[in-house]
Amino acid sequence: MNDILTWILDTVSAVDPVIRTLLAFVGMLLETSVLVGLVVPGDTIVIVASTAVASPVEFVTLVLAVIVGALAGESIGFALGHHFGPFIRGSRLGRRIGEHNWIRAEIYLDRRGGVAVFISRFLPVLHSLIPVTVGASRMRYRTFMAWTVPASILWSLAYVSVGSAAAGGYRELSGQLHFAGYLFVGAIALFVLAVFLIKKWLHRRELRHMD
């Protein structure tokens, strides 16, 4: 396990830091822009990129890139929703998402306002639909940004911190413990499980505002 993980982490670290950061930026831009977030695993891209963080400068740069990428993607979704909302909703992809999901997003936004924007960053499906839905609503872009900026900051700090901390801890222990690789995998697995449970709890808690 240690040999495999060391090879993987060394491969990621061998990529130029600028390229890694740009890939994370593009991944988040696609993940949060209109409907693309349903197929682009932005969280996976960010965690992989964060395992190669080797200095405070790289950490801060990656966090900023992820935040800016997320906000750029959501801004694109807002603009497209504002100008082409009905067309996107009626498109083939929009129909595949399901009319019930679009209706849920509208009801949720109508009932919760900015809170829906903040929480949707951590919910599946809705994190891709809300920017488009907000763009087609009466909410101003400035209000949308006021709620989505802190959510994007919190999301980015959580993912980059866990990825970089787990990888850093593994590198320190790999030469001393033969089961360090299992600790690394366990730490990532626990984080993924925690994220899943939090999303599940949030979804159940907010479900009454969507129906």
Tally of separate helices: 10
Termini separation comes to 46 Å
Outline, from the CA principal axes?
Answer: elongated
Name the helix and strand elements from N-terminus to C-terminus, one letter apiece: HHHHHHHHHH
- The share of residues in extended strands comes to under 5%
For the residues shown, what is the average pLDDT?
86
Radius of gyration: 19 Å
Q: Residue ranges: pLDDT <50 for 5 or more in a row? A: none
Q: Structural class per helix/strand content? A: mainly alpha
Characterize the largest beta sheet: strand count, sense, and whether it forms a barrel.
none
Describe the structure.
The chain is mainly alpha-helical and 211 residues long. It folds into two domains: 171 residues, no CATH class; 36 residues. It is built from ten helices and no strands. Helix 4 crosses helix 9, helix 6 packs across helix 7 and helix 6 packs across helix 8. The longest helix is centred in the middle third of the chain and has 35 residues. The radius of gyration is 19 Å and the shape is elongated. The relative contact order is 0.14. The model has no long low-confidence stretch (mean pLDDT 86).
Structure at a glance:
The chain is mainly α. Helix content is 81%, strand content 0%.
Question: Which structural traits does this protein have?
Answer:
about 210 residues, mainly alpha, elongated
